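P.,

For your records, the input lines for the assembly:
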Amino acid sequence: MEREVSGAGSSPPASAVSSAGAFTTVDAIVVAILVVAGIFDWLSGNPIHSTLLFAAAVALSWDAFARRRSGELEVAAEPSPVARAVANRVPIPAALLGALAFSVVVGGFGRYSWPATVSVLVPCAFALVLAWRRPDETASGPEPFDLRGAVPWFSIVVAAGLFELTNLFLQPSMKTDSYAHPTFSVMTDPVLASHPGRSVVLILWLALGWFLMRR
Amino acid sequence: MSSHDVTLAIYSALAVAVVGVELRSRKPGSRIPSLGRAFSRMMRTRSGRVGIVAGWVWLGLHFFAR
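Structure tokens returned:
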């Protein structure tokens, strides 16, 4: 059950979003997934990455409870002019060139190095801010579909998650890779060992981010 | 067939399943939403957007960052 949203173009501003103010089922599911993923990432020896997942869960929980406590209709923040420009008006060739340059340059940095870390954090921070500040979709949003139709997607996600978890538990330890039971991350290690491989993965990652932010 | 091969085969099967479901979703009259439509639906709310973008951010950090 998702929170109610006001219709676009009605008396409130187009960006105004009414909220039931409660911790919705969607909120609960998303927070639960973030927490579980954070726990396993922590157990796998990635406390910094898991902190990000915990932070997102805490931020969403705080946001939901703040809405409930205020008991008022929420008015979603207007995205900044820069964010709007980037989301809607950046010419595709310019975005492609920027992504290509980013991938080539950052792909040259070693994995887990500080230059790579700082470089990757830039688009990450930008995407998180955009996602947080974007107004909730209104009546002009995508056509709803029968949720039962999404069962195949849900099944694939659950199967992939369980299989990844199985391989993780079949490793000699949570922090030791296994050739016999490689996780997805372990399988990508040979690709990410070279500069061209890292650049290709980076551009695919950026493309995925672009695809998501345009939804 | 070694455990390694079986693991690779299962990952490949999952990838094929993604492609298959996406192709099926694009058939006229299909009840299955395309991946893009499903993401559009999930990105409607702040919790959905932040959850999905956090997943994308985590991927980038996991593969490249300390």
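Two observations worth noting. The first helix of chain A runs from residue 25 to 43. Helices of chain A lie at 25-43, 47-70, 81-89, 92-107, 114-133, 151-170, 184-192, 195-213.

Regards
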